Every structure is written in C-alpha cells, then in structure tokens.
Amino acid sequence: MIVATFVRLSESLVRFAVWCRDGGLRAAIDNGSTENPRADLDLHDEMDEFVTIATYDKSIDAHIALGRLAAEGIEGILFDEQMVQMDWLYSIAVGGIKLRVARSDANAALRVLETDYSQALEDVDLGKPEN
To answer: Which one of 30, 41, 89, 94 is separated from 22 by 20 to 30 angstroms, measured CA to CA?
Structure first.
C-alpha cells in the first residue's frame, strides 16, 4: 500500500516536472491560469522520452555513472534515488535507482558506461620513487 502510494506520487511529480520543463508553469504564471494544459497527455508518453540504461543499489554508484555521462555531455536523470535513500529495502520494491537518459542518447550513454579505463590508470604516475 505504501509503495503504491509512493509510485503514484512519483508519477505525479514526473508529470509536473515535465510540464514545468516544457514551459507550462511559466505560461500559467504569465496568464494567471492554474490549469495544466498538458493534463490530457498520458503519463507513459511522457516517460517514453527517457529510457533506463542502468540500475544501481547504491546512490554513490549511481552518481558516479551520472557524473561520467555529464562529463561526456550526456544529460541523465536518476529516478527513485530518494526512495532508496529513505529506506534501502525499498530498492527491491522499486527496482533500484534508475539511471535514465533521453531515448536519442541511449546508445552513446551505454558506450560511455561500458568503457573500461582501468588500463589507462596503470600508465598514470602515482608518485613512484625514481631510481
């Protein structure tokens, strides 16, 4: 029951965030209107703009991946992060922390996350004494 309530709340917040991002809030303020002009849209259409490319159990891991994408110029969003931080047992219920990107950036984002830089670290001078 509690998880279902949080899911409905999350869906409402996502709908509101997309409406604000698309200029709905600014238009409502300018017109003095409180009506949501995008209320007739299906939530699943809005969610279709983003695809989940990875899931994480820990917030730190999710933020490392999000930062890696940001360094490459790919915008990503973490979903359900606060839910998992509130109680880690919710991670199982909601499917972990989801890293989502725009559908058009999905392939590039997957390539970035799959890149292994461990070999490059072996060539880094870590201050080893010179002989």
So the answer is: 94
